[in-house]
C-alpha cells in the first residue's frame, strides 16, 4: 500500500515513545478496530505495565485475546457510552494514558445515521474525558480527522465538537488531539473497496474526477498517536506532514496497474459527490497557529480555547434533544455548538 502513495514512509526516532510508554498503564478504546488493534500491537513493543483494550464488539475482543494472550493485557467488552461500566473499568485498571480510537467514522453512512454519530462520537468522548479527569489520567489522546476542519459532514461536525470540548478543558489531565488524513487500508477505506472491485472485475466508482484526499498508512497513523502521547501538551493538535493530497483517480489508476490480471480491463466511473463529501480536504483552520514542526514530520498546532461552559451546555442540550427531537432539529443543534 505504501508504494501507492509515491512518497517515503513517515518514520520517527521512537526513543520518546519508548521512554514514555514503558511501564505505564494504558487504556485503548476501539481496540478491535483497524487503528485500535495496530495501536495495541505497537504499544506492546514498548513494554507498558498493563493495557486494557476496550471494544463493544464481542467477536473483535475474542480476536484480540487470541492474538495477544498476555497477562499484561485485559480485554473487556464494553460500551464506552455507558458511564457506569466505564467508571468501573477506570477504577479497576487506573490507566495513566488513554488512547481514544473508538468512533463512528463512515462519512456517507453517518449522513443518515445522526443519532449513533452523536452518541458514539460526542457523548462517549464526554464520558471518557470526565472519567479521565476524575481518575487522574495523565494524558488523553483523541483521534480526530481532517474532516473536522470546516466540516460539511455529520462525522466532521461530531469530531469538531469533540476537538472544541477537549481543548476547552483546563485540568491536570492533558488532552491532545491528532488529526488523521484518510487511513489507507483501514476498514471501509478506499483501498480495500477498490481492491475488492478489481478482484471481481468491476469498475471503480469515484464520486468526482477532481476529488483529492490526504493519505497515511495505518502504521503511520499509530506512530502519530504514540508520539502525541510522548511529546504532546494539553490543547495541542498534531498532524503528520503527508505531502500533497493525492488524486483519487490517480490512486485508482495505480491500483488498476498494480492489481489487475492479464486480459482484465477495469473502468473508472464517476457517480457524483455524495451528501457531506468535500472535493478537497483541509488540515487546519486559518486561525490555528503552527507552533513548530517536530522532527520535520509532525505539525504541532495551537489555538485559543473556547469556553468550556458553552460547549458543555451544547452537549447537555444534545442529550436532552436526542430523546425526542427530529433529525433536522438535531442537525441544527449540532451546528449551533460550532
From TrEMBL:
Residue span(s) of domain Polysaccharide biosynthesis protein CapD-like: 26-299
CDD domains (alphabetical): UDP_invert_4-6DH_SDR_e
Gene3D superfamilies with a match to the protein in the record: NAD(P)-binding Rossmann-like Domain (3.40.50.720)
Annotated family: Belongs to the polysaccharide synthase family.
Name this protein carries in UniProt: Polysaccharide biosynthesis protein CapD-like domain-containing protein
Species of origin: Dyadobacter luteus
Amino acid at each position: 500500500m505504501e508504494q501507492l502513495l509515491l512518497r517515503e514512509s513517515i518514520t520517527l526516532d521512537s526513543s520518546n515513545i519508548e521512554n514514555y510508554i514503558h511501564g505505564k498503564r494504558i487504556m485503548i478504546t476501539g481496540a478491535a478496530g483497524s487503528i485500535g488493534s495496530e495501536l495495541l500491537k505497537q504499544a506492546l513493543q514498548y513494554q507498558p505495565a498493563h493495557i486494557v483494550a476496550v471494544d463493544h464488539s464481542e467477536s473483535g475482543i475474542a480476536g484480540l485475546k487470541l492474538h495477544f494472550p498476555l497477562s499484561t493485557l485485559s480485554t473487556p467488552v464494553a460500551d464506552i457510552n455507558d458511564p457506569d461500566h466505564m467508571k468501573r473499568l477506570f477504577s479497576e485498571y487506573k490507566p495513566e494514558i488513554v488512547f481514544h480510537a473508538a468512533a463512528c467514522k463512515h462519512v456517507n453512512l453517518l449522513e443518515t445515521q445522526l443519532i449513533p454519530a452523536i452518541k458514539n462520537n460526542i457523548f462517549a468522548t464526554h464520558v471518557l474525558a470526565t472519567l479521565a479527569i476524575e481518575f487522574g489520567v495523565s494524558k488523553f489522546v483523541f483521534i480526530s480527522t481532517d474532516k473536522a476542519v470546516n466540516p460539511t459532514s455529520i462525522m466532521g461536525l461530531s469530531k469538531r465538537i469533540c476537538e472544541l470540548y477537549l481543548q476547552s478543558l483546563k485540568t491536570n489531565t492533558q488532552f491532545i488531539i491528532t488529526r488523521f488524513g484518510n487511513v489507507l487500508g483501514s476498514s471501509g477505506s478506499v483501498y480495500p473497496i477498490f481492491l475488492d472491485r478489481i478482484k471481481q472485475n468491476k469498475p471503480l466508482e469515484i464520486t468526482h474526477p477532481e476529488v483529492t484526499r490526504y493519505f497515511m498508512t495505518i502504521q503511520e497513523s499509530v506512530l502519530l498517536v504514540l508520539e502525541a502521547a510522548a511529546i504532546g501538551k494539553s490543547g495541542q493538535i498534531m498532524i503528520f506532514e503527508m505531502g500533497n493530497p493525492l488524486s483519487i483517480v490517480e490512486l485508482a489508476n495505480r491500483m488498476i496497474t498494480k492489481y489487475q490480471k492479464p486480459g482484465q480491463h477495469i473502468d473508472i466511473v464517476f457517480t457524483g459527490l455524495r451528501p457531506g463529501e468535500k472535493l478537497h480536504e483541509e488540515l487546519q483552520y486559518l486561525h490555528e497557529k503552527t507552533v513548530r514542526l517536530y522532527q520535520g514530520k509532525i505539525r504541532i498546532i495551537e489555538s485559543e480555547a473556547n469556553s468550556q461552559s458553552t460547549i458543555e451546555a451544547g452537549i447537555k442540550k444534545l442529550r436532552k434533544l436526542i430523546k425526542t427531537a427530529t433529525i433536522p432539529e438535531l442537525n441544527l443543534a449540532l451546528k449551533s455548538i460550532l
